[in-house]
Amino acid sequence: MERERRFTGNGRQRIAALDLAGSAAAVLHRAGVASVDARLARAEDLCRQLKSLPPAAGHAEILYPGELEARSEERARLEGIALPAETLANLGQIARASGLAPPIMRTYG
After folding, report:
1. Contact 19, 5 (CB under 8 A)
2. How many domains does the chain have?
3. Percent helix, strand, coil in the chain (nearest 5)?
4. DSSP helix/strand/coil, 48
5. Predicted confidence band at 102 (pLDDT cuts at 50, 70, 90)?
6. Residue 106 falls within a domain, yes or no?
7. What is the arrangement of strands in the sheet containing 23-28, beginning at the earlier edge strand?
8. Which position has the higher pLDDT, 25 or 77?
């Protein structure tokens, strides 16, 4: 069931949130904020507010769009990406056939 809730700020800024079966959408009117820095600060504040809410049952935290992917990318940059042994062997064959040194990578499986 769709429920709409409206929140108002200082009279110039309005936030409308729509609760859709565990998802939330927010619409911000940028005319109420003068500068890009102020809008970014407001967006960061909104993210902090959302993350301070209790998570849904069975979840450890609230994630905003792209957060999980950003964490995965950072982990891959720090730790590398594990590849199956067969994939690593194929990359080694391609490298040798091209006159290159085979890549050094971790394997699993």
Report:
1. yes
2. 1
3. 40, 20, 35
4. helix
5. confident
6. no
7. 2-8, 14-20, 23-28
8. 77
Which residues are 27's β-sheet partners? 16
Query: Which among 13, 11, 61 has a CA at the least distance from the CA of 34?
Result: 13
Closest CA to 7 of 22, 19, 21, 17: 17
Q: List pLDDT tens digits, range 37-76.
A: 887 888 899 889 988 999 999 999 999 889 999 999 999 9
Tell me, yes or no, if the pTM score tops 0.85.
Answer: no
Structural domain for 13, as ranges: 2-65
Token digits of residue 79: 């730790």
Q: DSSP string of 58-78?
A: T-SS---TTHHHHHHHHHHHH
Q: Which residue has the tokens 């102020």?
A: 38
